Amino acid sequence: WTASDFAAGYQSMMADPSCTDFQGLGAAIASFQSFLEEELGIVVETRGLHKLIPESHPRAKWIAPSATSRALGWLSADETGDPRLREIAVLMLRMAHAAAFRISELRWLRLRNVSFPKNGGLDIEVTPIEGVNPLKTEAAQRRIFIQDVELRDLMFKWVTKRGDEGAPLSAYLFGEPDADDKVYRPHAVHTVLIESLRRATGDGEITFH
What we know:
3-stranded antiparallel sheet, globular
């Protein structure tokens, strides 16, 4: 399901004449949406959908750089499972450590959103994708410059790899190797990120929004 599908479903439920407790239903929808954001990284803008659906507020937690380093070390050293998934997870975690990204913003990046300035660093453009990644506010559409030599090198190798796979600039950055319109195992990647951070921090409630 896309964010638009969930939004339409919420509105349909709030318009159901058989419902006898719309305030309770609105609270239940908000609780379910918080779960979607915290566990699956699915962001749905609930503001304005219905006056009885409160806006969800995911809990924010600070993660020590040492914990991030542990998680990255484990992911990089792991030689089991899906190597493409691990490579994507490492890039996403490094990006989120370097700048403030939501999981949905990273997931739906396209190759054209990434550039490599001649003076170094990494330039990321976060843009909305209608029906998939609408962004929470207008300010969420932005350019982010990351001055991280190691991340730049890893990203350059990844973008080169995507080019070798025949992916055009309109393809997803973290896409399927043979399908330009599909993101590669998005929920599996998200699960690996969450599990790595929980193991590295010892906090079972840590999530990746």
